[in-house]
Design a protein that fits this description.
Structural class: mainly alpha
Strand content: under 5%
Distance between the termini: 65 Å
Radius of gyration: 20 Å
Helix content: over 70%
Shape: elongated
Number of strands: 0
Length: about 190
Amino acid sequence: KAKLKIIEFAKDVGGREDLEWLAVRLGQGTNSEAKQTWAAMMKIFSGVEIDVLNTWESRLISNESIYHLSASQEIDFLKIVLSKTPDKEKPKYYEQIASRSFTTGQYEQAANYYNLLYTSNLTAADKDRILPKYLDSCLRCQNEKAVTLVMEYLSNNVFNAEHPIIKIIDDYFADTKVGADKNNVLKALKGIT
């Protein structure tokens, strides 16, 4: 109980200097202690400068991280980083949040962040790389933007049955785990001329 009170105190009045010992607590103790520790760290992260966040990003998010955050924790952290990141660097975080959101089945959130990424100042090659992921997210959350993306692709390119967006559409209709009503999407896609 004393540990939880100290962690709660750190959440209320802690600063960047408390992040080190809180991080140690992430992997130790009970599940409720780890949750409370993460909540305290998130509150502190909300109040620090971007340089502190960038330091912790490499420690928390990298493949070599010893902290083993869940995808949801990574998303929460990345949203804080994004909120303090200069505009020209935001696309990197849009993509990271979108990718993790998709992986965790949060397709609507993934589609929203892929939209932010897709409509940012990307090169044509980057847009072409992002398009299949963006379309897949839109299809899975029944976002009307899916049809617009297909129409945009077809209006700017010669139809290519080997393009990744065609595979995404095929996979979407073949996937029996996708619980959404595919008939609405099919009708909308059939309306493309």
